[in-house]
Specification:
The chain is α+β, with helices and mostly antiparallel strands and about 525 residues long. About 25% of the residues lie in helices and about 20% in strands. It has 3 domains: about 140 residues, no CATH class; about 190 residues, Rossmann fold; about 80 residues, no CATH class. The strands form 6 sheets. It has an 8-stranded mixed β-sheet, with helices on both faces. Helix 2 packs parallel to helix 6.
Length: about 525
């Protein structure tokens, strides 16, 4: 827009519309926290397939319940997962000291596995001096560069198999060099790190004696095992605290997670599971996420289940969480496909994601289309047994002819009939969380705007457009938008006292869709002679 109109003519001005589109956030990005064979421990890693998970965290592991849960998650329709690896306090990373040149005075550099754990004992490294030469600042030809190859080799049925390999060329021990080895490995390698390598004018000794001569890419070198004796890596002896990994989920912004799974709870007893479940449920309230609880290992019968949720070891009642019964079994590829009992959280998280994608988050993840892929139920419940658990807020997994194994419940942990909670149903709670997070992300532009009627009108316009879009997709009940939702932001919600305090109040209401949990058929006999 011109500052002044200085000459006769036509001036063009672009006027902003005032519409700021509020984008829908994800609905089924799922977080898994557990011990894994390998992988980073300082951050949550976003993965989009089980192949991704296997590459970063090592795939299936007998000691990791979440590794099986993640496989089930993708098998049942999951798309995005956030994975956090926790390790024992006394876990160690595999390491090997490498001499820096023939001169003993040059010292050593220590190569270590990229993360703690016994997995690093499978690493092999090779150093080669067949590199390009370079000219330093004085014009002298310098031969201090080297090539480095690293690979992870594990034995399968007695035969070595290369899991992963990396090659780095023309590295330097000079911190000022663009290919300084410490920086290159820290930024690019998923397998190896190095410390104490800042030795300008030197380079690691060439690998001439090692375990095996092999080729990685087009580089042929002699590989040496990383870990020997007291330098070997270990997973530690003290159990890792699963809940200690939860705070890392606060660091994934601008991304969000919507579902939390702690599959290792299935290995705990009722008396020890309570503290873990309560901590996770409280964390989900803070993060606007939903927690799928895995039953403790000693909850094996419907009597155990009802006794657990009403006893002293019962987890806190939260409408941000749900319980499913019974446990399930899967075929374990690591044990010749013999049955392995696992928690249900990974499977149900996949069902949540599949239902969200095909029907919307407002559809209950239950019913004949909520099939459970790749699992068998440890118990087959009858209608009467189902009727004893459902009123208590325990969602039952059932097996029906034709349909197979399905989720047959959609209640939150606060969904017992006695509580009569307005957050009784999973889709109602998750729809509210979805709206809350979308508006929270989409209204940040409002902060520091002039707090008057013009701002309120813009808010009504933008929030109303978002809510109307959901209404048109069938997210709310009601014959008209007036019946389905409301958006209010005006002088009634925001008084002058609020304005003086820098506050703008927005009232958003919606009429949620609730699942048809009980279908009643009324059948009447007719006399047979109808008068028309």
């Amino acid at each position: 827009m011109p500052a002044t109109y200085s000459y006769p003519g036509v001036y063009i001005e672009e006027i902003p519309s005032g519409v700021r589109t509020i984008a829908s956030v994800s609905t089924s990005d799922t977080a898994f926290v557990d011990v894994f064979r390998k992988g980073p421990t300082d951050r949550a890693v976003r993965i989009t397939s089980f192949t991704d998970f296997a590459r970063v965290f090592g795939g299936l592991d007998n000691a990791s319940e979440a590794s099986y849960a993640i496989k089930q998650y993708y098998l049942n329709g999951g798309s995005v997962a956030w994975v956090i690896r926790v390790v024992a306090n006394d876990a160690k990373a595999a390491r090997i000291p490498v001499a820096l040149g023939a001169d003993a005075a040059a010292g050593e550099a220590t190569f270590t596995a990229a993360s703690k754990g016994a997995w690093g004992n499978n690493l092999q490294i090779a150093i080669q001096h067949l590199t390009t030469t370079r000219t330093d600042a004085t014009g002298q030809v310098v031969t201090d560069l080297f090539n480095l190859a690293v690979r992870e080799v594990e034995k399968v049925n007695g035969r070595p198999r290369i899991v992963a390999s990396e090659v780095y060329r023309n590295l330097s021990l000079d911190p000022a060099h663009t290919r300084f080895v410490e920086d290159v490995l820290a930024q690019e390698s998923a397998l190896l790190r190095v410390t104490g390598a800042a030795k300008k004018g030197s380079r690691p000794a060439d690998s001439t004696i090692g375990d095996v001569v092999a080729k990685v890419g087009d580089l042929t070198a002699t590989f040496k095992s990383v870990a020997t004796g007291d330098t070997a890596g270990s997973d530690g002896t003290t159990p890792a605290s699963i809940t200690s990994g939860l705070p890392l989920l606060r660091q994934i912004a601008p991304f969000v997670f919507n579902i939390l799974c702690l599959p290792s709870t299935a290995n705990l007893k009722m008396d020890t599971a309570k503290s873990v479940i309560d901590a996770a449920a409280a964390f989900c309230i803070e993060q606007r996420a939903f927690y799928i609880i895995d039953l403790p290992s000693d909850v094996t019968t419907d009597a155990n289940a009802t006794g657990w949720i009403s006893g002293n070891d019962a987890p806190a009642r939260s409408n941000y969480a749900a319980i499913y019964f019974p446990q399930v079994e899967i075929a374990d590829p690591l044990q010749e496909n013999r049955p392995r009992r696992v928690g249900i959280s990974g499977t149900m998280a996949g069902v949540f994601a599949r239902t969200d994608a095909t029907r919307g988050i407002w559809k209950a993840p239950a019913g004949t289309d909520a099939t459970l892929r790749g699992v068998t139920l440890t118990r087959k419940l009858t209608d009467l047994e189902n009727g004893g658990l459902n009123p208590l807020g325990i969602n039952v997994l059932r097996q029906f002819p034709i349909y197979g194994n399905v989720s047959w419940g959609a209640r939150t942990r606060e969904g017992s009939d006695a509580e009569a909670s307005e957050w009784k149903y999973i889709p109602v709670r998750r729809t509210a969380l979805f709206i809350e997070e979308s508006l929270y992300q989409g209204l940040k532009w409002v902060v520091f705007e002039p707090n008057d009627e013009r701002l309120w009108a813009q808010i009504r316009l933008n929030v109303g457009a978002f809510m109307h879009g959901l209404y048109r997709r069938g997210a709310f009940q009601g014959k008209s938008p007036r019946d389905a939702y409301l958006v209010k932001c005006d002088g009634d919600t925001t008084t002058q006292a609020d304005i003086n305090l820098g506050i703008v109040n927005i009232l958003v209401g919606f009429a949620p869709l609730k699942p048809a949990e009980f279908v009643v058929l009324q059948i009447q006999q007719l006399a047979g002679q109808l008068v028309t």
